[in-house]
Amino acid sequence: MSITGKTAPGPKPINNILSQIQLMSEFDRDAFGVVAAGFRDHGDLWQITVGGSQQVMIAHPDHLHQVLVTDADKFTKDANYKNTNKGLARFMGNGLVTSDGEFWRRQRKLIQPSFHAKRIEAYAETMVDHTLAQMRQWRDGAALQVDHEMMTLTLNIVVDALFKADVSEDAERIGAAMDAFQEMQKNQSQLVPAWVPTPGELRTRQAIRDLDAIIYRLIAERRARPHDRGDLLTMLLEARDDDGHGMTDVQIRDELVTLFLAGHETTANSLNWTFILLSQYPQVLARLLDEIDSVLGGRTPTLADLRALPYLDQVIKESMRLYSAVPAIGREAKEDVMIGDYLVPKGSTVTLFMWVTHRDRRWWGEDAAEFKPERFAPEREAEIRKYAYLPFSAGPRVCIGNSFAMMEMRLLLASILQRWTFDLIGAVPKAEPLITLRPQGGLRMTARARSVAAAAQVEDALLTV
Questions:
Q1: Which fold has domain 6-463?
Q2: 73, 75, 78, 43: which is closest to 58 by C-alpha?
Q3: Side by side, which strands form the sheet with 342-344?
Q4: Where are the chain's structural domains?
Q5: Where residue 453 falls among pLDDT bands split at 50, 70, 90?
Q6: Sign of the C-alpha dihedral, residues 360, 361, 363, 366?
Q7: What share of the chain is helix, strand, coil (3-state, %, to 5)?
Q8: What integer pLDDT is reported at residue 2 of this predicted model?
Q9: Distance CA 157, CA 151 (A)
Q10: Which of 174, 188, 379, 398 registers the highest number of CB atoms within 10 A of its CB?
């Protein structure tokens, strides 16, 4: 049954090719600025129509709740996920991030036990061990490409957790595949079809071939010599649905690539932004170092220590508020839906801009742009507007790896800051919204080894807080 309602406000439809190219150029230059201006000019819900395709922008917590929770069954993943030429499905196939409907529900049920709390906790020591190994390569006073270091570290961890295998010989191919995966976001906005062999398209094809070769090799090796190594691949191979059916190699490949790509890229970038923010807010860094030093006393952090590090948790949550690894989510309306006072017609793309929600002064106060971890102190966190903070999405499709990611970030950050701090070289990088939110141009920082003298400086800084 069709419904009637007001048409969402927004700019005039853009139909001619020159105007579309101009709009794409504006988005490439400052996507967040363009979107924020739309909310400022048109209100909490606005639309833009390009070439006959309608895109609705939302950021109000009530609207996010409706799309993700109460009316979740009225929406499906949009083309940016499901398009096999330019969407995430080109890399991830029909994995958890891109699939929908009954197939998605079956896969989610099969994979969920792999992320049981006890299973995740078993990776804690591995996470710390990899961090210690990575830090041994750093030198005091040296310029460090921190984004590369965090990507390498989280990649090693996710490979260990997924496969319990050595893929060091494939590191170069994996790194190139990661870059091609990110660049695909830029390619999505191009008018050139995927069959045209542009340099970017050729890199994408090679990246997919490389990932397939690596993943299918690991699956074949494990099927040939099956035994539980305590990794996610074992869990996926052994998983059975209610009818006793397991997953095919293609399904396992899609889920592994999904977890592989999503399982380290997001964590690495969240850590990158946290290091940037800590370098800009010395009082926050001083308080955090004091907590880490007081609790650990020089010991390597363990899972049990995390309960005694509440400020560490607050720092990470506040960092993810300002720089969510995934700053927006796309959906497509399966039927006519009323959102607020406006009709969202069937087939419309609905983009949920958490970047805007997380910085809205109505929910976060006049200092919404400031880095203030105290917002997430227990007594204040309880007062945060519901659905105004969604770093891991919400509803039935909440990120399946959120507990894994939070534990990983806390352990890695505690391990690193126990021994090192970083000074930003140059200006704060611009946030580049690709598949995940990367520091544009990379992240170069000076590594500072902590010492007794450094601890004294922390004490002096704390006195000024």
A1: Cytochrome p450 (1.10.630)
A2: 43
A3: 6-7, 342-344, 337-339
A4: 6-463
A5: very low
A6: positive
A7: 55, 10, 30
A8: 65
A9: 10
A10: 174
Q: Which pLDDT does position 452 carry in this prediction?
A: 41
* Mean pLDDT within 31-42: 94
Which residue type, as a one-letter code, is found at position 289? Answer: L
The amino acid at residue 258 is T
